[in-house]
Amino acid sequence: MKNDSSSKLLSLIHLVNSSLPLGGYNYSSGFEYVIESGCIHEPQLFCGLINDELLYGFIRIELAVIVKNSCLSSLQSVSHLNYWNRYLHGFFEAKELRRQSIQMGNSLLKLLGDLDQAKRESIGEYRQVLGKDCHYAIAFGIAVALWEIEPKDAVLGYLHSWVTNLVGAGVKLIPLGQTQGQQIIYDLHPVIATVADELIEQNEDHLYACSWGSSLASMNHETMYSRLFRS
């Protein structure tokens, strides 16, 4: 595929499409437990929770990792990839969130090789180096670099996809109407843009996230008697 602006945009749309067979729709990132516990029972509270996660949650670390890896011109630095993959592995406090990230990362790397025959050999090398524990943000960064997608566009697409997935869970769990769910996504556009602008230039030494709430929710979600989503 020719690397013009249209093909890059189409590649990004493809990459963040919810129909991509990565299993993301199976997860609620602990939100199911939060809703079941009675903390979230109306659209405004749900929107506020996602807003706080965007500003302070673990998603910030994932985005920083994507930026660090997508800015590599050739992805020749294997040690760089391994460093950030181990960084993510250590940062996840809940094994459920870690397993989700690894499952989706491995699925994405495999899919990339299946989709792009010209890059299958390179992707195979990354899979061999990273082993069986490739986190989703690492795989996403590799895709962004190989398809020459602009990092800023990739960050916006990743954030929008993440918010859309959580709202999809909220539509089923609260429940929300479809229009209410779309309204939440639309209302969060300014926050998504602000977070993207902040993280695209952020220095590694200044990375931060407050993720203990999500971790506790995910841990409690694993032991729920009845649930719709995977831990």
**Low-confidence spans: pLDDT under 50, at least 5 residues?**
none
Helix fraction bin: 55-70%
Beta fraction: under 5%
Calculate the terminal CA-CA distance, rounded to whole Å: 37 Å
Gross geometry: globular
**CATH evolutionary superfamily:** Urease accessory protein UreF
Major sheet size, sense and barrel closure: none
The SSE string, one letter per element, is: HHHHHHHHHHHH
**Class by SSE composition:** mainly alpha
Report Rg.
17 Å
- The overall strand count is 0
Briefly say what this structure is:
The chain is mainly alpha-helical.
3D architecture notes:
The protein has helices at residues 5-15, 31-36, 43-56, 59-70, 78-91, 95-115, 120-130, 136-146, 151-173, 178-187, 189-200, 212-222. It is mainly alpha-helical and 231 residues long. The chain has one domain: Urease accessory protein UreF, CATH 1.10.4190. The longest helix has 23 residues, at 151-173. It is globular and about 50 Å long.
Task: List key phrases describing it.
231 residues, mainly alpha, Urease accessory protein UreF, 68% helix
Topology, pairings included?
Elements: H1 5-15, H2 31-36, H3 43-56, H4 59-70, H5 78-91, H6 95-115, H7 120-130, H8 136-146, H9 151-173, H10 178-187, H11 189-200, H12 212-222
Helix pairs in contact: 4-5, 4-8, 4-9, 4-11, 6-7, 6-8, 9-10, 9-11
